[in-house]
Design a protein that fits this description.
The chain has about 190 residues and is α+β, with helices and mostly antiparallel strands. It has one domain (about 5-180): 3-Layer(aba) Sandwich (Aminopeptidase), CATH 3.40.630.30. The protein is built from 5 helices and 7 strands, in the order E-H-H-H-E-E-E-H-E-H-E-E. The chain has helices at about 15-30, 40-50, 55-60, 120-135, 150-155, and strands spanning about 5-10, 65-70, 80-85, 105-110, 140-145, 160-170, 175-180. Strands 1-2-3-4-5-7-6 form a 7-stranded mixed beta sheet, with helices on both faces. Helix 1 (about 15-30) packs across helix 3 (about 55-60). The longest helix is centred in the first third of the chain and has 18 residues, at about 15-30. The chain is globular. It starts with a strand and ends in a 5-residue tail after the last strand. This is N-acetyltransferase domain-containing protein. GO terms for molecular function: acyltransferase activity, transferring groups other than amino-acyl groups. InterPro entries: Acyl_CoA_acyltransferase, GNAT_dom, MshD_Acetyltransferase. Pfam families: Acetyltransf_1.
């Protein structure tokens, strides 16, 4: 990786670019690549609530969370981002989760035109290191769309295993998601 791309923690000045990237990557990866035909009102509701500048402001301001970005230094654009932090039973509903003690990967997205450049792998390594530092000895949880086989394979490579299922709300629509867990690194 050359100096063109920088991996860094996002800050409040990044919220508008993060909101745009979040909406773009969600649309590319779920609506287009996986052909999910959400009702427009449900998709709009989800993106307004979970991809808004306000959502990113709250997430970046939360000391128990980290938002990491990959920034193209030539034009200032973000090409990938991830959100990690303390686990929450409301976001990952599994009976074994220890809210606020276990770690969680909430999002990891790479723009379609920047996939296969290694950004996802490098971002995952950054996030897992951050989670290990802040939630040492605890498992890491995530959810993934059941039809996103590429993401499931990616997460399995990092030691995540399917441990449950749930219906993730996108407005009134429900996506069938898998719950995955990576056992604690005890070394």
């Amino acid at each position: 990786m050359n100096n063109q791309f920088v991996f860094r923690r996002a800050d409040i000045s990044d919220i508008d670019k993060l909101s745009i990237l979040c909406q773009k990557t969600y649309h590319e990866s779920v609506v287009e690549d996986l052909s999910v035909c959400y009702p427009e009102k449900d998709l709009n509701y989800y993106l307004h609530s979970a991809a808004s500048p306000e959502w990113f402001t709250n997430t970046i301001s939360d000391p128990k969370r980290a938002v990491c970005v990959v920034e193209d230094q030539t034009n200032g654009e973000f090409v990938a981002y991830a959100v990690a932090g303390s686990s929450c039973i409301d976001a990952i509903p599994h009976p074994d989760i220890c809210s606020d003690k276990d770690g969680a990967l909430y999002r990891l997205y790479v723009r379609r035109d920047r996939q296969s450049y290694g950004f996802g792998k490098q971002l995952m390594n950054v996030v897992l290191s951050w989670l290990e530092e802040h939630y040492h000895g605890q498992p890491v949880w995530l959810t993934v769309f059941s039809e996103n086989l590429k993401a499931q394979k990616f997460y399995t490579h990092y030691g995540f295993n399917k441990v449950g299922e749930w219906d993730f709300p996108i407005g009134e629509w429900k996506d069938h998601d898998f719950i995955m867990k990576r056992e604690a690194n005890t070394s």
